[in-house]
Design goal:
RmlC_Cupin_sf; mainly beta; Jelly Rolls; 7-stranded antiparallel sheet
Length: 256
């Protein structure tokens, strides 16, 4: 598909500093930067997430309803896992520097850092990658619906998910420790790749963006409830410089 942009316009942008486009911050070792047409309006059908994680941290289970995802490992290592909806099998791929794992559009997936200073670049074939997070599904689905549908004790279900108060993005939450978490980093992948030597990339400094920025911590742009965008082939909005949609907080799906 082709986007027709006015490359003579004075508002067209050809450069951006992804380090300034913070999507989510857990701490100084675990955060996500984003590049999309919202910050670089000359992009065509491509966007990316710049992901930094320390060992045993997890990009939470999620799926992208409008894009496939190519996960490239720049430094460190990670297990990239997904559920194949055609076979109902869980596959896990260990990626090290220079290696990639491909996640088709709409597939449920997650990533676990298997060592410190892991840097992943997630590349999408969409100008703005949309996402539905497990944390949003769990906390926003009414507890009585979950209990009735799956024959659960509603009070126990509410108590179990009560710590999930917002979109998680990278888990586990700060100040949370469970004995089984450390074992995730040592989980053996089902498919092995080549192990290559690498030079670790430095972690960029923290973004100076404060509250009110479209990508500041805690201000994740989201779609209002019940207004899931119907994507048509070749029909993507043209984002103007400095024009960010005003969206409601706390309702999925979200734009990354």
């Amino acid at each position: 598909m082709t986007l027709y942009l006015d490359y003579t316009s004075p508002s067209i942008q050809y450069f951006d500093d992804v380090n300034r486009n913070r999507l989510f911050t857990k701490d100084q070792q675990n955060y996500i930067n984003v590049l999309s047409t919202q910050t670089l309006n000359s992009l065509d059908n491509v966007s990316l997430l710049d992901i930094f994680m320390s060992q045993s941290n997890v990009v939470e289970p999620h799926y992208h309803q409008n894009a496939a995802e190519l996960v490239y490992c720049a430094s460190g290592s990670a297990n990239v896992s997904f559920i194949n909806p055609f076979t109902n099998q869980v596959s896990t791929y260990r990626v090290t520097p220079g290696q990639v794992a491909n996640v088709p559009q709409g597939w449920w997936h997650w990533e676990v850092a298997t060592e410190d200073n892991t840097h992943l670049i997630a590349i999408f074939n969409a100008p703005i990658p949309e996402v539905i997070l497990a944390s949003d599904i769990l906390r926003l689905t009414p507890s009585n619906i979950m209990a009735h549908t799956y024959c659960l004790n509603e009070a126990q279900w509410r108590d179990t998910i009560s710590p999930i108060q917002m979109s998680t993005f990278i888990g586990p939450p700060v100040n949370c420790y469970q004995g089984q978490v450390q074992g995730l980093a040592n989980q053996q992948p089902q498919v092995y790749g080549y192990q290559l030597p690498y030079q670790q990339a430095p972690v960029p400094p923290q973004s100076g963006f404060g509250q009110g920025s479209p990508f500041a911590p805690g201000t994740y742009p989201q779609q209002p409830q019940g207004t899931f965008p119907q994507q048509q082939q070749g029909m993507y909005p043209q984002q103007q410089q400095g024009m960010y949609p005003q969206q409601q907080q706390g309702i999925f799906p979200q734009h990354w």
